[in-house]
Amino acid sequence: MRAFVASLALCTTLGLWPGVVAAQPVDTPKPGPRDLCPVCGMVVSKYPEWIATVVFDDGHVHHFDGAKDMFKFIHQLDRYAPGHRRENVRTIGVTEYYDLQRIDATTAWYVIGSDVLGPMAHDFIPFLSKEDAEEFMADHGGRRILRFDEINVDWAVKLDRGAFD
């Protein structure tokens, strides 16, 4: 399954199936009332429409109050989860903006630079499809659409500063 998801993400990123492949729903545990984001320390369950979750092969789970902190975490595991490695990530889920279902973060489409703010100000707004992301951009003044493999910690830091290029 992981090889399929990696291949799908790669093909989508390379534009081999542009606009055709939609992010798939994923089943991730829900955060409890005391689960804190390991990046910012906020109580995650207070923001159900923004939850992101990383599940490791060993069953270890981390929840986030938005995709931005999830990307900071995944790109800085040594800082936030010493002993965990990226290749041991089983599932990464983000909450889709329109229908609030949990979708596979690696195949989602992310809009930045819109007038919609997450719990920590500007965030990566996740969508099932490129068409949904484009519609959102038209409605909310988004500046750019990114794919999972394009996002690194520098993008997350830029969003903290309100920079979108």
Automatic annotation (TrEMBL):
Signal found in the keyword field: yes
Gene3D superfamilies assigned: 3.30.70.2050
Sections of the chain in a coiled coil: none
Leader sequence residues: 1-23
InterPro entries: N2O_reductase_NosL (IPR008719)
Record keywords, A-Z: Signal
A Pfam family matched in the record: NosL
Signal among keywords: yes
Annotated protein name in UniProt: Nitrous oxide reductase accessory protein NosL
Organism: Pseudothauera lacus
Lineage: Bacteria, Pseudomonadati, Pseudomonadota, Betaproteobacteria, Rhodocyclales
